[in-house]
């Protein structure tokens, strides 16, 4: 199946239901993403180059995560699903492959060697980078990933207190610190900091304003790992003005429904650490 390289339908759904205030999961509904997920399931990956595949896997991860929450209205945390094992045991069809969310992240995206993907993947939690309100496309992917990084740095990549001289880094930099080391550890030698923390601070400095970057690279502060917030990230209520994602289609067996065995087993985010 030929893939729409603009992801127009998915892009329209995101623009209608994602904002800085959160996501209108109720407006998306349990079937709102079905047409897009069917398209993802049927796409022929052999027709896509590496950049196109990277965009596809980012969109697939985020759309599947959105769908999980939309199918479970009122859930307090994604970790409440499947005993906290939703990332490793539910299987979905993407490009004809049977993949878990862990597979998409750890076996498809991370081996591509671009740590910016961590700013693009959303686990529907307050501790995660916020979901952008646009689909990722191969044509704009580099700019979109930089945009996601800047947005993450402005929000919850770190809690910086210049008066108290403390920085609490997102646990994502701890869990996936090795992904940032090659590009960011030696960008600047920050006094009193090394390894994963230095790589994270250099990454944040690069995507920050100049004043913050200067303060961060000068050192002289205490660095810790922030407590991760697994609460659902900013769910918005549906108002009369909120456009719905479309009428509910006939419920033929869903292309990416988990198998009977996976409904009863299950697991936790963005890998076993989260």
Structural summary, described in words:
By secondary structure, the protein is mainly alpha-helical. About 40% of the residues lie in helices and about 10% in strands. The protein has 13 helices and seven strands. The chain has helices spanning about 10-15, 25-30, 35-40, 50-70, 85-90, 100-110, 115-120, 140-155, 170-175, 175-185, 195-205, 210-220, 260-265; strands spanning about 20, 20-25, 90-95, 95-100, 160, 165-170, 220-225. The longest helix has 21 residues, at about 50-70. The two termini are about 35 Å apart.
Shape: globular
> Level of helix content?
40-55%
How far apart, in Å, are the first and last alpha carbons? 34 Å
What is the radius of gyration computed over CA atoms, rounded to a whole number of angstroms?
19 Å
**Which strand-content bin applies to the residues?**
5-15%
Oligomer: single chain
Mean pLDDT metric: 88
How many β strands by DSSP? 7
Number of helices in the DSSP assignment: 13
Largest sheet, in brief, is: 3 strands, mixed
